[in-house]
Amino acid sequence: MIPKKIAFKTLGCRLNLYETDALASTFSRRGYEIVDPGEQPDVFVVNTCTVTNQGDQKSRQEINRMLKKEERPVVVVTGCMIDNYKKDLSRFAEADYLVDNKHKTSLLEIVDAHFKGETIDPGQLKPDVFSFEPAQKTFHTRSLIKIQDGCDNFCTYCIVPKVRGRAVSRPVEDIIENIRQVIDYGYKEIVLTGVNIGRYEYGETDFESLIEKILEIPGDFRVRISSIEPEGFGEKLFDLFAHPKLMPHLHLCLQSGSDKILMKMRRLYNISTFRKTIESIRNRYQHFNLTTDIIVGFPGETDEDFQQSVRLAEELNFSHIHTFKYSVRTGTRAARMEDQITEKIKNERSKVIREISLRNKTAFMQSLIGKPQQILVEKINAKGMARGYGELYVPLEVDAKGLKTNEFYPVIPATFKKGNNPVLKAEVR
Description:
- The termini are far apart.
- Helices cover about 30% and strands about 20% of the residues.
- A five-stranded parallel beta sheet has the order 2-1-3-4-5, with helices on both faces.
- Helix 11 (about 305-315) runs parallel beside helix 12.
- By secondary structure, the chain is an alpha/beta fold.
């Protein structure tokens, strides 16, 4: 029997990436062939994002592109757009199945039933956000591990609590077992992900205690922490970075350099506490990579508010700043605020922050020349160059002769390749 072909398209965050990886691995185990969307699949799954208008637009483009095919596949739309527009799903009328986040783990059951001539209503299935199988084969070298879902912060601009629900933490033993299994599959880098992972709490285990338990797992692997809010954890977390398995990089979400704007956003910290967090880390570790998010053009953001963000971005020397233009999300408090900023000003401010980010990144990467790193090779290109990341989550490139993917190698960065996507060229020690 010829196996059915299934393709996936993922938009948005690492949590979506984790869930797609797990789903693809599950379908592969059940005999489906995982293919590229351009290879005429029998099933096409779009894991959507709705955090911004741009996320909505990209998700719709992917859905429509597949629906317009002459021999179109079974189209399954899942993810946050379904939760966001559940009161009006008419925009997805031509899709075959609409599956919200709480039923995403049931995609195999839904698709299998379809090819048996049966129809399953996803809403009638048991909701579960944590029963994804450990991913044996993924679209990445790193293995993403979901530890938490949902959020209780209710920032005024954010739609995540609406589409992901209230905060819930995954059982500790499930996480530990998931990690043990992917290590057995051969993965050497684990990335912990969720919506608000710093608020992880299951029984008596908080986020720092969970990290401690993970670091105790035997094996040759390293651990990364994905995007995290700058609250909900303490000094204990910083101490844990002394462990050789925990990589010295944090993506701390700043969002604005203005206390006034942070209050309007309903963020749970101020600039003083954020600055102290950065200083505490840098006082402990000579080499540590700090990256962040900044939103520009939030309602009521004056030129002075924006300049405060500019000054803080330069002062704190983030090696990368993920820059967002504020996007109106219906149903959030910020959407009803006065003094909405024009798109022209948002574009101008975004450009300024992106230029600072590139300058900071260039300076940080140049400072690493001559300092030993350990690359995990992710891919080898046609030119015989191996690419991957060192401990500091900085891209490295090295001559691939004698090297293999998914292996660690000690290297020394020797030269710096400039551009919008700079990279350190290294030599194997």
